[in-house]
Specification:
479 residues; alpha+beta; 3-stranded antiparallel beta sheet; 15 strands; elongated
């Protein structure tokens, strides 16, 4: 600044010439004001004859005070420096108390130690394809030439096993921690151990592989991620946390397109299984036998009234009418659960319409074999109703189109006929076999399984006559 005139004009001079600005008349120049003070961050690289630094320990100022801030403030002055503080003893104590001080005011006001720790751990590792243990682990999982984003973290004193680290990102596409899996030697092979998460608030997904085709696959764990990367090596693979869909910024980091977002079948099944387990958790527990129809009625009320968090988005289901038989109640429960699954696990933009009834039926059959299902009568009855024989698509559509969620009588009759045909087919395919016939068949199989050697010959073995080779003549034609 060359001159400050009495009328408020400011004269600026540099190597290219002189410029005069008038903040009073020019709206664009009204941001110009006196700069009596600047922050320590803004004062870096500057110098002045005199420097007055305000450093205190009251409130959030204590987080910004330290040896680094003291060095910046003291080294700005040429002739004189003066420190003003509200607590001399407390301020002096902060000069040697912290080694790793916050880099910005945001880090001071909202410290995230997990993010800093993840950055230091990530800097310790090397790309999985650059290390011998990483290449061996990728080969064992069928990912020899896949461009995975994982790194191998060497062993430390606290964690003596090498770890496979995956970067985790938040909704803004910024690094938000690590997903770490220990690699253990087991009989000449590498097996992954228990996954350890080092996450900050707002973390959405861990990236196993960046997309090169625009397609992104969402998985629930590392095993599903390896399977997805083997099937589609050009697609991106994200391991999501709590079934949260990735934000557009995260999809951009992963190299994917919103209309090509998909889930493998195993991931879709695991999500449906988690939702069904939440429904079963609110059922009234009972160990004694009771009327199965009453159990199904309570299950229908539980699904329609309060088993899910988003209660207001679910279709209203009327209470079951008296006189309904077990098949009618089972059909109504299956339709209700399928509609709820469609609300909680919606179709992604790149997916075809899932068959939620088939998914619920498959998950119910899996859960029916667990010890929890066998110990509780209510859970056993609900899983038995949901895992019954398949309902045809025409029946399911007609049941969904019913008024007020009540299953039409035609649908009930068709389901009864379908169940009776399936039961009769099962009975016809498994006839009663007498125990004597089974015993004879077992003895015959044992006899056939015994190894028998040919009888040993006596004396000199008779010489066998080998056929003489046929004499052939090769005649070369001459010109």
């Amino acid at each position: 600044m060359a001159e400050l005139r009495d009328n408020g004009e400011i004269v600026l001079r540099n190597g290219s010439g002189v410029k005069v600005i008038d903040p009073a008349t020019t709206l664009a120049d009204r941001h110009v004001d006196y700069s009596w003070a600047v922050t320590g961050y803004g004062a870096q690289g500057a110098s002045a004859r005199y420097s007055l630094a305000l450093e205190g320990v009251e409130g959030a100022r204590e987080l910004m005070s330290g040896a680094r801030a003291f060095y910046i403030n003291v080294s700005r002055a040429k002739d004189h420096v003066q420190i003003i503080t509200d607590d001399k003893a407390g301020w002096t104590k902060t000069l040697g108390g912290r080694k790793n001080e916050p880099a910005t005011a945001h880090d001071a006001l909202m410290p995230e130690p997990a993010r800093d720790q993840a950055r230091r751990i990530w800097a310790m590792g090397q790309a999985a394809s650059k290390t011998a243990i990483g290449r061996a682990f990728l080969r064992s999982n069928g990912l020899r030439a896949s461009p995975v984003t994982a790194r191998i973290i060497p062993p430390t004193r606290k964690f003596p096993e090498p770890h496979l680290a995956l970067p985790v990102y938040d909704g803004n596409g910024k690094a938000a921690g690590l997903t770490m899996v220990p690699l253990r030697h087991d009989k000449g092979s590498l097996t992954p151990g228990q996954t350890r998460q080092l996450l900050t608030e707002g973390a959405q997904a861990a990236m196993l592989q960046k997309s090169r085709s625009g397609e992104v696959l969402l998985v629930s764990d590392l095993t599903q991620g390896f399977a997805a990367a083997r099937v589609k090596p050009e697609a991106g693979v994200l391991i999501v946390h709590d079934r949260q869909l990735p934000s557009p910024q995260l999809l951009k980091v992963a190299g994917g397109q919103p209309d090509q977002l998909r889930r493998p079948d195993a991931t879709l099944l695991s999500q449906v299984k988690a939702e069904l387990q939440k429904m079963l958790a609110v059922l009234p527990r009972t160990e004694k036998k009771q009327d199965e129809r009453d159990t199904l009625r309570s299950a229908i009320k539980s699904v329609s009234a309060g088993s899910l968090m988003e209660k207001n988005t679910l279709p209203e289901m009327p209470p079951a009418r008296d006189g309904m038989d077990r098949i009618t109640l089972a059909v109504q429960l299956a339709v209700s659960v399928a509609e709820v699954m469609e609300q909680k696990v919606p179709r992604l933009p790149g997916e075809s319409q899932p068959d939620y009834s088939a998914l619920v039926r498959q998950v119910a059959r899996t859960l029916a074999d667990t010890p929890e299902a066998s110990a509780d009568a209510a859970v056993r009855a609900v899983l038995g109703a949901l895992s019954a024989s398949g309902i045809p698509d025409s029946v399911r559509q007609a049941a969904t189109a019913g008024n007020g969620g009540v299953v039409p009588a035609a649908v009930v009759r068709e389901v009864q006929e379908e169940l009776s045909r399936s039961h009769s087919a099962v009975k016809a395919a498994q006839p009663d076999i007498p125990s004597a016939v089974l015993a004879d068949a077992a003895r015959e199989l044992d006899r056939q399984a015994q190894v028998s050697l040919p009888p040993e010959g006596r004396g000199r073995e008779q010489e066998r006559e080998h056929p003489a080779p046929e004499i052939t003549r090769h005649i070369q034609k001459e010109r």
